[in-house]
Here is the input.
Amino acid sequence: MNWVVSNMPASEYFKDFFQHENKVYAQILADIAQGIYVSGDRLVTTALAKRYSTSINPIREAIKQLEGEGFVTSQKNSGARVANFSQATMRDVFEILQLLEPYLFDWYTQRYTQDCLLKLNDVLHQMRSLSADEHMKFRELDTEFHWLMYKHHYNKSAVQLWKKNKLILQALHGNIPISLARRQHAIDEHEKILSALVNKKPQDAIQALQDHITLGGQYWSKVLVQ
Amino acid sequence: MNWVVSNMPASEYFKDFFQHENKVYAQILADIAQGIYVSGDRLVTTALAKRYSTSINPIREAIKQLEGEGFVTSQKNSGARVANFSQATMRDVFEILQLLEPYLFDWYTQRYTQDCLLKLNDVLHQMRSLSADEHMKFRELDTEFHWLMYKHHYNKSAVQLWKKNKLILQALHGNIPISLARRQHAIDEHEKILSALVNKKPQDAIQALQDHITLGGQYWSKVLVQ
DNA sequence: TGTAAATGGATTATGTGTAATTTGAATTGG
DNA sequence: CCAATTCAAATTACACATAATCCATTTACA
Here is the structure.
């Protein structure tokens, strides 16, 4: 466990992704997403209270909330731990995303404006211009690309669910670097989605999105096997 | 707000649906599902502490967990309320169920045994033999029918998600009676699913399930409009 | 002597009481 | 009739007491 206090980077269109009024809750979650606490780590209330300079109760409540969201598990009289994000979990998460994303995306294909596409293009441009070692930043931009398309969907529960599963993936990936090949593929896939949107071919866009998710899932399951 | 302490009925195959080690949490959730607390009701910690004869902290933690699960919303310094289960929420929930159920069911169509089908048939038989006024019991059996098919799915997050959304629906329906016509239709739809399974026609079964969900959604959205 | 059970102390979770800040509504005054 | 103030009630945070768990060491027995 690493004791650097996390400091989520926030790009322009991405600020709203991690925001939460409860400071302690947001910090713990960000620390889980950043891999400062990893799967299975104990979350000792007294230690966290010191770390975030508050008392035990706020910590306990934040942990309970995270437990409700599935990021944390706890056993009676034996405290809380970061949830077991195993390989099986990743398969589960990917399968849920595979259900959700086309659903969320479908709405977007009927509502997007020129301005939206410009923003997407901007993010894509940032992805291209990243240096080879900025893995975290790349993943963040990838998520941001999708976030821009889903965030205004009318089904807020579905959007929240997507966010939650994305965060779990982020926690699972941790700091594992992405291969440059996969990065290029991801950029290409995003490009394909974007161009289908520009050319007003929603069916192609949906197909491209589904391919993108499947390929991403395949890549990560291979990487995490070893 | 009605102050009868809830007492969830539990049929044979359904016991595991509401079980939770935390007594206070389970009680509050059951009370929300039963409509004892309805959408928008304040959850005053001191009152709940008296009601469940405990102190404020356990109540606060249970509420935080329920907040994480989406059953409760809270504003800073202004306490917690039962989440706003509006009509829009119902549409959202149905749409998520529409994504989830075929996914969960697909696995079942490849794994069910003769014994499973007998249980399903048993539940169906109970549904048929209910008296006209047992609305709650009917809905419970309906849920149980689906629960039997999904509970053993490998994707536990998806199963939990399904449960959560089912509970929200239950809270939304509250004690609204079901028309006898809809009851008969529901029975017919279940019958169709079951017979497709018996005849080993998984595609037909999945189609029947999708129809069943769509028709249920249509019925309830009409009922809740007035 | 080796292994398993038992013991005990330290650590941590859980539950209760209490003080302080905030809220929201009723009351008062203009 | 509207605005400011006051006051009760509830939330929040904190300190403390109790109870359970964990881990290392010791003890008992084959």
Notes: Residues 202-225 of chain A form the longest helix (24 residues). Chain A touches chain B through 31 residues (CB under 8 Å).
